[in-house]
Amino acid sequence: AIKPDRLKTAKTLVAKAVKLRKVFSVQGPYPVIRAALWARGWVERHVPHPAQRATHCHGNEEDDGDAGADVTGETTEDTKENLDDMYDLMSRLVRNETTYFHWTTRRDYIDCHSLRNDQITNHYANSGTFTTKVGLCVNLRNLQWFDTADPDTFFPRCYRLGAEDEKHAFIEDFRKTACTSLLQHVVETSRWRRDGAEGEDQKAHNRSDLLDNVEHRFVGPGMIDTALHVCQEFLNVLEHADIDVTVETLPSVEEQQWAEFLQDYYVVVHEGALIRGSGVFVERCQATLIRLQEACPQLDTDGLNNIWIIKPGAKSRGRGIMCKNRLEEILALVDSDRALTKESKWVVQKYLERPLLVHGTKFDLRQWFLVTDWNPLTVWFYRECYLRFSTQPYSTKTLDSSVHLCNNSIQKHFQPSCDRHPGVPEDNMWSCSQFRAYLQQQGRGEEWESVVVTGMQQAVVRALQTAQDLVEPRKASFELYGADFMLGKDLRPWLLEINASPTMACTTAVTARLCPAVQLDTLRVVLDRRTDPSAYTGGFQLIFKQAAVDVPQYMGVNLLVEGAPIRRSRPLLHRQTVTSNPTLAVQLPLDQSLSEKVETTHKPSGQRSYAVSAFRHSGKENRAAGEKKRPCRSRTCEQPLVVHTEPQRKAQRLGLSLVANGATLLQHRTPTCGFPSLRGPLPTLEVFSLQPNIVAATSPCRNPNVSFHPSVHMHQLFLCSRRQSMAKFKRVHRGT
Prior knowledge:
One of its GO terms (cellular component) is microtubule cytoskeleton. Keywords: ATP-binding, Cell projection, Cilium, Cytoplasm, Cytoskeleton, Flagellum, Ligase, Nucleotide-binding. One of its GO terms (molecular function) is ATP binding. This is Tubulin tyrosine ligase-like family, member 3. By secondary structure, this protein is α+β, with helices and mostly antiparallel strands. The strands form 6 sheets. Strands 11, 12, 13, 14, 15 and 16 form a 6-stranded antiparallel beta sheet that branches. The protein has a 4-stranded parallel beta sheet with strand order 2-1-3-4. It has a 4-stranded antiparallel beta sheet with strand order 5-10-8-9, sandwiched between helices. Strand 19 (656-658) and strand 20 form a beta hairpin. The protein is flat and about 90 Å long.
């Protein structure tokens, strides 16, 4: 039974929390987040855990260790049990209330579009555009639109093997890298020989290993010529020396030659074979490498073995990642999984063969950063990070994941090697403070801030800038990310990937201190600064905040133009029409005894009839045509055509024209412009020289031999309405 005083206290706390909108929900084992929110007066509303989905929307996210125990501190068991009972009681009281703070492991647990503006969540929609292997690979190619930096200076070369064009680009890159690696091999081999005893020991070791394979121990010098030629062509392209070449040339190295070159390269570099007469090429190789150094910022880290790391984009926590150094093996591995290849999920990235080592052991860095707004882009960088070591000494002679993958979810399955330096920690982790002390011993302590931290900050901001147009901005959202870096021998940081929902498992003494701290500081930035802009932000420092940008009406670059097609007009219904010959005319002479004659032509059904103006012919041609048809019974027909200016203007205002001896002419002119939906001009009717009977003055003359169309009848009505005007015109004409 619940004690009345505890129930009263719970109701009081719940009422206050609801009034202040302090109801939260946490999905996943985040005891630090829960404890920090409880301390701020928030009440948790328990929600059912969503069912796990078979396919996740951001397969690159890390979730290893999140279900493990976390270090929260100093509460005794009895006190914790009492507090848990109280919190459970309060949770039941707010089960029907609105949640105002969501903290989840995955972004697809919460639909950001259904949240209100005052509801906070720890994920942004579409942030998978840079937290997936494929997304980061594609987006960083657009860096030129946001920054002048070259992505090849902080992000290893990367290709999607599912895209056919990128697959071909990778093959070309692999071949070119084999050529540059061979040149470095020639130069370094000659250097070993000059070093004296150490070089002699190295050669003796190589020879003893290959005594059973003498026939393949030596390779001809032609492969060095091929490598120099390929590198020279590459430099010419970079220097635009081929810009004036108009004739398409065949490839300088055929496919069969490439296959032979790569096999010789594998024998020399991987198996230790020697090249006959390589000493005469040393100077040329050195000169070419100096030129390549200026054009290829990754030349120092490429190494000699041409190792590439293959990552399946649909898996996380290092699963499925492996290293390969032969082209045919990489292509075969990708082709074996058609599903991932079809979706362009396979990513191949150049492996950094010459990283900075600590006591001969490889490591990488996990660096946290926080985004609190995307417009304007606001980035917070955590002051502390930690190092993750491999359990085995570093070597490029083996491609085992225990040597090359420093992910804790991979290394926890291996025991530290007996050959590993004792200075490497047994739990495989260092804090950044311990690493700075190591650099200080090496005389490079100042480079931590000036080179490492600055380089990581720049890489993070540039990666976010390329994804800014793709992530859906939301003012009440935030997200904590974990970026993985490797350091070159010059301490330059190289961005490997960015993870959403980074693990907060306290698996070592280092993470037991740092993971709770970064969670508490995240809440300081997200919650405390909302009410107090000067609030303490812990280890987070603001490193980037751009000016606000007006968001256009569309999202991304997908534009859509909608419209309706223009349809052709329907064909005119068939009707019996009165059309004209090329000299269509209905003439009524002044002699009223004459009958009207109308010449018509009818075109077959389905064809349009077009009127042809009689004004295309001169007056003599019209008269000649009339004489051929019938004899002229009036002398007035032979009189010259006389048209007075004033009557002509009046007739034009009435839409009429004049013919000889006062005969009137009615013309419907064909429009000179047609409608866009029609192929030709509109069909019209032209009737010339229809003159009413002046004597009868009642109705126009009709010829019983002519079958009048309704359109002709309309013209007759028009004549009747203008009868008085024509009579007046005739009187004026006769008076003159």
